[in-house]
Structure formats: structure tokens, C-alpha cells
Design brief:
704 residues; alpha/beta; 24 helices; 50% helix; globular; transferase; Cellulose synthase-like protein E6; Nucleotide-diphossugar_trans; membrane
């Protein structure tokens, strides 16, 4: 009698990190309690004696409460760090693997060049997964003929690339990455004359593919439309008599766009793909990719199945999150492009209910996103229509017995095309079953962190998988402008929804801004509790250093991460919350600015050299420069008083000195650099003026 099957995954607690983290929490927690005891007793004395202005002291206490609130929340991921391991070689045979749909979104071929997008499409087609159980959908939000022609060319090239990758067991799924890397074919084929000959043919085909896309991309920006009917095209061979069974399905989707109809950006695009794919393939799982995040390791879908086919946890897992990793990182990660500051937390979140959705590189179940399992026949049809809209075919896809209606020749019937047009229309409305209008009118998969919160609260869990060979690789931002614009855009998720959960998220974002704008505290060196403040500050910095080293990053990344955190907090989150407020009261329409994937050689050179490029919108730079000048002035005044033998505010001078040193790149950009990437003199002058006004108002406040 056979024994139990070996596990498909394993969870290993990182004991050393767990001990260090909990000791840090204990000691730092005691110090924080001592700090608040000091604040409470001092506040009572100030109220009685009026020895110090009350308002500034209340502001400081409020700031420290915010610090503490977020510190407590932040300890959740440190509580139980774990490492997940997967064993795809133990999966059952291909005939037992469930189908998977792949969703890719693009919007503008002038900002997202066709070659990069189509490499992502072709790499998804080349995943190591049964071709009859794999379908790839490209949602083109620009309705561009450039993108439509490009995907047709991608299909032609994929007819050669996919069999080649599969035959020679290439470890890299993306053609562009394969041809620019060392050989990744299985060692048994290396040196074979047949392999060498076929590789030469594929290289020629790829060169022809590149050339065709380059010719097709002329005047790409003019091809983008914001007012067009839906277009759905299933890719097939031109002659129509080829055997398609060895190729995954490839579908082009351009949802309808009309002026005056909200389209909800990427969340709306994914909603459309969920509906359209439901009546074509209806795979129970779907993988979401950004258009510049190509499949590198072809095993990603199988790695996800190591959880979804595990009977112990399969029914609980809503999504499997893979990290975003990048092929264009510099040794100087000055813009935090590696996102390691985020992914450090996932090691601990796997010890809880799992990580959030991070926008792409995740495999999710339809059951979780729909808010229901496969529906039985007795469920009321009108109830389903109220939740899932007016499409009968889409509602049928919810039933266990449903089989998609796409013929073997992959040419949709007239009836199916009509249904697809309806599902891709801009007026189609649906939401999660049973939620009415409380949560989401258009259910946003990605652009709202509340999706993660909502699913976790409903009992679902998620997992984070980081294999040795990255599953996906993309292009990170290589200049300050793109980084700040991107970080301003991500918090706009708050605008997508209403409800208590989202109001809580907005409050957290607002508190984050207050937290990071208040970078000082009131302590006198002569005060016996000064040591408590100094301990909390130093222990936090040392913990950051310890985590950076433990994660395998160079020590200088500690400074880079701190700089990025300060820049995001002061500039990006401030404008994100202002945009959300203005949009909520109807004075501003939310917009979704794409991060350009077009490479600027001059900016790229500065990025590789670790030099900041300050060719940034003034509205993002001015808050940064103004706050820096304030700290610079505070430091100078503090040193001047120190020479007058007045050391009462030495702590504030030291803290301002810390901010000045960490953000030395701003001082350099404003006053020392003369190259094209410096901070514009007009921005510097305006920042000085704003700082002077703030200092003047602060002096008046203290005086009165």
C-alpha cells in the first residue's frame, strides 16, 4: 500500500530572525511606554505652570502617537518570519493540472514600447504548462492598431519560439532575455548540431520580429484612442488549417471606452478580462502580469499549483504572490527600485494571513474574486444577475457544469462575439455576490489595497513565494521623476472605492503623512528622559541596518531606503491624499499617469553611476526642498546656540543634522551641482521663500 504523497510545499520558521525581532519589540516597547509616561507627566505640569507653549507640545505628542501607532502595526510582519519552499517536481501529471488564464494590461505603445510588451506576451505563451490548459489575454486600454498589429506579429513568432523553448527545455521563457543571457538550454542539448541549427533559425525569426514591430510602431502615440468600441480577437493562423493544439490560446481585448464613462484604470481593465475570459476559457485560476514584467522562469504557474493542489490549504488560499524583480537594477539602488523594503515584510506576513496583492505577479482564484464558489443550479438567476450583470453566458460560467463555447478552430461564433461585445462594454456593471453597493460598484482587483483586506477578513489567506530563480523580471524606474510619479499613483487606490475599509485606509495614509512631516521632537539633553528618546531612535536605525544585512543587501541600501521613504512621505503621499480629497468633492478628476518604459540614455547613465536626476515636476520637488531647508536652518541655529553654551536643544540639532546628512543629495542638487540633472534654481529659490514663511509663522506661534 502506497504511503502518503510527499508535500508540495513546506513552511520553515526563521528562528534566529524571530528571536531578534521579539527581543527588539520587547525592549523598544518598554522604552516607548517610558516615553509616554514622561510626556503625560510633563503635559500635566505645562498645563498647570504654563512654563512652555502648549500648542507645539501637543503637536509633538500627536506626532509621537502616530509614530507609535505605525510602529505597532509594523511589528506584525516581524512577529513570525517564515520561508516557504515549493516542490514542483512532486506535482501530478499534466492531465491533472487545472487551467490557468494569464492577464496582461497595456495602455499606450508610445510609453510602453511594443517590443517589451510582446516579449511579455510571448514569454507567457512559453510557460512550462500544458498548452491546452493555458490562455493569454492582452488588454489594450488604448485601443491601438499598433498594439493589435504587434500581437499578431507576436503570435507568428510564438509559433516558432514556444515549441523551441519546450523542446530544448530552456530555463528562460522570454526570448529577449534568452538571447541576451548565457545559454539556458538543458545541458544534454548543448553542443548538439540540431540545437545549434534551430537556435540560428529562431534568432533570425526574432530579428525579423523586432524589425516588424519597429516598422509597426511609427507614430504610436497617434494610434491611442479614448473613444472606441470593444474589440476582441482570438489569434489563429492565417491559413486556418494549422494544428493549434500545441499552442496556448492568445486573445487581444480592447474594452470599450467612451468620454464621460469612468473606466477605473487597471482595475477596470482586469474586470473586463475576468468577464471576457469567463466565456472563452473560464480557467479557475488567473495570473496577472504588468506589460513590462516578462516571465523569466517558466515554472511560475506550476509553483503556484504547489499550493492550489495541496489539499491542506487549497480551499483557503485566495492568491499566491510572487515578488517583482528587475533586470535593469544598478548597484546603487538610489530610487528603491528593487522594492526590497517591501518584500522584507513578506517574510513575516507569511507567518500571518499572507501578503497583500502587489499589483502584478500573482495567481488568484476566480472563486475568491467573485465572492462565491461554483454555483449550483438552484441558485436564483435574478440574484445572480443583480450581482454579475445582464450577460446570460457570463452567469452560466458560474455554474459547475459550464463549458466554454469557443470552437476548436478558435473562431468565435457570431453569438459568442455578441456576448463578448457586451461583456467588454463600458456600461457593464457588476460587483461581488452579496455585497450590494456597500463595497465596490466596479470590483477593482489590483488598484485598491482593500481587496486584500476584504479577502483576508473573509477567511482567505495568501502566500508569498520567492524561488531562487526569479519567476518574473521587469524594468524598474531609473529616474527620480518616474519613481515619484509612480509612488504618487499607487496610493490613488483610495479613490476607487467607498465603504468603511477604504475610509480606514485613507486615514492611515493621512496619518502616514503627518508621521513623516513631523521629523522632530522636543527633548532637552539635560533631561533624564533624553536617554529614552535617544535609545528609541538609535535602536530603530540599528534594526533597519540589521534587516538590510540579513536580507543580503549592501549596507549603503540602508541610506538609500531611508531617503526614498522620506521623499515618498513628504512629496508623493501628500499629493496623493490631496488628489483623493479633491476628487471626492468633485474638484478634480482622478487620473492614472503611466510610468514611461522608454529609456533615456543620459538618465540611465546617471542612474548607473548613483547620481540623482532632479528633472522632476516642481510640485514634487518643492515640498522636499522646503523641508530640507527647514532642517538645515534648524541645524545651523542649534549649532549657534551650542556655541553660546546653550545645549537645551542639542537633541533637535542632532536630529536635524541626521536629516541633513541622510538627504545630502538634495543639498548637492540645490547648491553644488551644475549638470543638467541638478535641481532647477527656480525651485531652490521658491523653496527658500516657502521655508522663510514657515519659519516666520512658527516664530509668531511661539511668541504668542
Amino acid at each position: 500500500m502506497d504511503g502518503p504523497s510527499p508535500p508540495l510545499n513546506a513552511r520553515r520558521v526563521l528562528t534566529k530572525d524571530l528571536i531578534v525581532n521579539r527581543l527588539y519589540m520587547l525592549v523598544n516597547g518598554i522604552a516607548i511606554l517610558a516615553l509616554f509616561y514622561y510626556r503625560a507627566t510633563t503635559l500635566l505640569r505645562i498645563i498647570e505652570t504654563r512654563e512652555t507653549p502648549l500648542v507645539p507640545y501637543l503637536v509633538v505628542i500627536f506626532s509621537e502617537i502616530m509614530f507609535t501607532f505605525f510602529w505597532v502595526l509594523y511589528q506584525a510582519y516581524r512577529w513570525k518570519p517564515v520561508k516557504l519552499e515549493v516542490y514542483p517536481e512532486r506535482l501530478p501529471g499534466d492531465e491533472k493540472l487545472p487551467p490557468v488564464d494569464v492577464f496582461i494590461c497595456t495602455a499606450d505603445p508610445s510609453k510602453e514600447p511594443s517590443l517589451g510588451v510582446m516579449n511579455t506576451v510571448v514569454s507567457a505563451l512559453a510557460l512550462d504548462y500544458p498548452p491546452d490548459k493555458l490562455a493569454v489575454y492582452l488588454q489594450d486600454d488604448g485601443g491601438s492598431y499598433v498594439t493589435l498589429n504587434a500581437i499578431r506579429e507576436a503570435w507568428k513568432f510564438a509559433r516558432f519560439w514556444v515549441p523551441f523553448r519546450r523542446k530544448y527545455e530552456l530555463k528562460i521563457a522570454c526570448p529577449a532575455a534568452y538571447f541576451s543571457s548565457k545559454e539556458s538550454a538543458h545541458e544534454k542539448f548543448i553542443g548538439s548540431s540540431e540545437f545549434a541549427a534551430e537556435k540560428k533559425i529562431i534568432e533570425k525569426k526574432y530579428a525579423e520580429f523586432e524589425e516588424a514591430l519597429e516598422k509597426n510602431s511609427v507614430n504610436a502615440s497617434a494610434s491611442v484612442s479614448r473613444d472606441h468600441s470593444p474589440v476582441i480577437e482570438v489569434m489563429t493562423d492565417e491559413n486556418g488549417d494549422s494544428n493549434l493544439k500545441d499552442m496556448p490560446l492568445l486573445v487581444y481585448v480592447a474594452r470599450e471606452k467612451r468620454p464621460g464613462h469612468p473606466h477605473h484604470f487597471k482595475g477596470g481593465a482586469l474586470n473586463t478580462l475576468l468577464r471576457v475570459s469567463a466565456v472563452i476559457t473560464n480557467a479557475p485560476y488567473f495570473l496577472v502580469l504588468d506589460c513590462d514584467m516578462y516571465c523569466y522562469n517558466p515554472l511560475s504557474a506550476r509553483l503556484a499549483m504547489c499550493f492550489y493542489l495541496d489539499p491542506k490549504v487549497a480551499s483557503k488560499i485566495a492568491w499566491v504572490q510572487f515578488p517583482q524583480k528587475f533586470h535593469n537594477l544598478s548597484e546603487h539602488d538610489i530610487y528603491g527600485g528593487s522594492l526590497n523594503a517591501i518584500y522584507k515584510s513578506n517574510i513575516g506576513l507569511d507567518g500571518l494571513r499572507g501578503p497583500n496583492i502587489y499589483g502584478c505577479n500573482f495567481v488568484m482564484t476566480r472563486e475568491a474574486i467573485y465572492g462565491t464558489g461554483k454555483v449550483e443550479k438552484e441558485v436564483d438567476l435574478n440574484k445572480l444577475k443583480k450581482s454579475f450583470g445582464s450577460s446570460n453566458e457570463f452567469i452560466k460560467s458560474l455554474y459547475k457544469s459550464y463549458k466554454p463555447q469557443l470552437p476548436e478552430d478558435r473562431k468565435p461564433s457570431a453569438e459568442l462575439q455578441k456576448e463578448l461585445q457586451l461583456l467588454a462594454s463600458c456600461t457593464y456593471q457588476w460587483h461581488r455576490l452579496g455585497e450590494g453597493q456597500v463595497g465596490y460598484r466596479y470590483f477593482s482587483v489590483v488598484e485598491d489595497a482593500i481587496t486584500s483586506l476584504s479577502l483576508h477578513c473573509k477567511g482567505w489567506i495568501s502566500v508569498y513565494v520567492d524561488p531562487a530563480s526569479p519567476c518574473f523580471l521587469g524594468a524598474t524606474t531609473t529616474n527620480l521623476n518616474d519613481m515619484l510619479v509612480q509612488q504618487t499613483r499607487w496610493p490613488l487606490a483610495c479613490q476607487a472605492t467607498s465603504g468603511k475599509g477604504c475610509r480606514f485606509l485613507r486615514a492611515c495614509v493621512m496619518l502616514t503623512i503627518f508621521w513623516n512631516l513631523s521629523m522632530s521632537s522636543l527633548f532637552m539633553v539635560s533631561d533624564p528622559y533624553f536617554i529614552v528618546f535617544a535609545f528609541i531612535f538609535l535602536s530603530s536605525r540599528l534594526k533597519h541596518v540589521q534587516e538590510t544585512i540579513a536580507f543580503g543587501d549592501p549596507l549603503r541600501n540602508t541610506v538609500y531606503e531611508l531617503r526614498v521613504w522620506m521623499m515618498k512621505s513628504v512629496a508623493c503621499y501628500l499629493y496623493a491624499i490631496l488628489n483623493a480629497i479633491l476628487d471626492r468633492i468633485g474638484l478634480h478628476e482622478a487620473n492614472f499617469s503611466l510610468t514611461s518604459k522608454v529609456v533615456d540614455d543620459e538618465q540611465e547613465t546617471r542612474f548607473k553611476q548613483g547620481i540623482y536626476d532632479f528633472q522632476v515636476s516642481p510640485k514634487l520637488l518643492i515640498p522636499l526642498c522646503s523641508l530640507y531647508i527647514l532642517h538645515l536652518v534648524a541645524f545651523i541655529i542649534g549649532i549657534a546656540r551650542l556655541f553660546q553654551k546653550n545645549d537645551e536643544l542639542l537633541a533637535q540639532a542632532v536630529l536635524s543634522f541626521f536629516v541633513v546628512i541622510v538627504n545630502y543629495h538634495l543639498l548637492e542638487g540645490m547648491f553644488l551641482r551644475k549638470d543638467k540633472g541638478r535641481i532647477a534654481p527656480s525651485v531652490t529659490l521658491l523653496s527658500i521663500a516657502i521655508s522663510a514663511i514657515i519659519l516666520g509663522c512658527g516664530s509668531l506661534l511661539l511668541f504668542y
